[in-house]
């Protein structure tokens, strides 16, 4: 499409002024075409997200406050939800949504206090290797509670058992019916990007370092059913699998949320 725009512009420059729309110089025509192309692309992306929401049962993203609060939930708020928070933050920043998508972590069985020293040391080392903020792993553990349903736009469980416990906290049938559409598992987004997750350049959803991590395992990661739960005694294969699956799923989640931004939403005006 970009090449077509450039060709059209050159043709317009070589044509007589009578061939241009009245009152439109070459620059204005090119700018108008660019805006039209962008609107078409945004509408196509929005329709893709709506189709996926219907077919995959994904939660609706309500962008009318111009930002979204995403809560990642695991069992104890120690490893998986925190890794997901950090990687989601990194992917969102790469895609220009660092100031619009706000992730945090909690655990359905989390107890107060920070993780033990050995776990924290291992996680801080992982943070350095993955290029995510160390503060995420040093924070106090947060327990998921009923109020979190209203504090966050979308609640993302690390596996089906955690999702079941989240919905159990919702309470009675009416509350569960109200909150369930905003709850899902992280791997529900794993297939959203498909092979496009490996696309490079400025339009790629992942930066080169993260693309290199998932490229050899993309087919497996796209079909993951839940995020594995390694511990300090687990071998590197289990830890690597957890990271790979989270990267692929977070890429799908960020792309889905970006696509779901309504093309007709008015420009943000802080005043």
UniProtKB/TrEMBL annotation:
Taxonomic superkingdom: Eukaryota
Gene3D superfamilies named among the record's database cross-references: 3.40.50.2300
Region of interest called Disordered, as start-end residue ranges on this chain: 1-25
Cross-referenced InterPro entries: Ptyr_pPase, Ptyr_pPase_sf
Residues of the Phosphotyrosine protein phosphatase I domain: 70-171
Any Pfam family: LMWPc
Name this protein carries in UniProt: Phosphotyrosine protein phosphatase I domain-containing protein
Organism of origin: Coccomyxa subellipsoidea (strain C-169) (Green microalga)
């Amino acid at each position: 499409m970009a090449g077509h725009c450039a060709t059209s512009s050159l043709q317009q420059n070589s044509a007589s002024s009578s061939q241009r729309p009245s009152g439109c110089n070459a620059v204005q025509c090119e700018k108008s075409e660019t805006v039209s192309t962008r609107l078409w692309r945004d509408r196509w992306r929005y329709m893709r997200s709506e189709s996926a929401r219907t077919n995959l049962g994904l939660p609706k993203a309500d962008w009318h406050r111009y930002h979204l609060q995403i809560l990642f939930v695991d069992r104890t708020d120690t490893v998986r939800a925190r890794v997901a928070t950090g990687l989601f933050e990194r992917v969102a920043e790469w895609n220009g949504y660092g100031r619009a998508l706000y992730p945090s972590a909690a655990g359905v069985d989390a107890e107060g206090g920070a993780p033990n020293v050995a776990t924290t040391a291992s996680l801080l080392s992982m943070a350095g290797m993955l290029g995510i903020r160390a503060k995420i792993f040093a924070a106090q553990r947060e327990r998921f509670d009923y109020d979190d349903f209203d504090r966050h736009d979308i609640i993302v469980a690390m596996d089906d058992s955690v999702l079941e416990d989240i919905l159990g906290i919702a309470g009675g049938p009416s509350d569960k019916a109200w909150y369930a559409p905003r709850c899902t598992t992280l791997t529900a987004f794993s297939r959203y990007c498909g092979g496009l997750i490996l696309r490079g350049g400025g339009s790629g959803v992942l930066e080169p370092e993260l693309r290199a991590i998932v490229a050899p395992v993309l087919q497996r990661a796209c079909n993951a059913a839940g995020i594995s739960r390694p511990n300090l005694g687990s071998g590197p294969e289990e830890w690597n699998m957890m990271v790979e699956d989270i990267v692929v799923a977070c890429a799908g989640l960020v792309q889905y949320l970006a696509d779901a931004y309504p093309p007709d939403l008015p420009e943000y005006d802080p005043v």
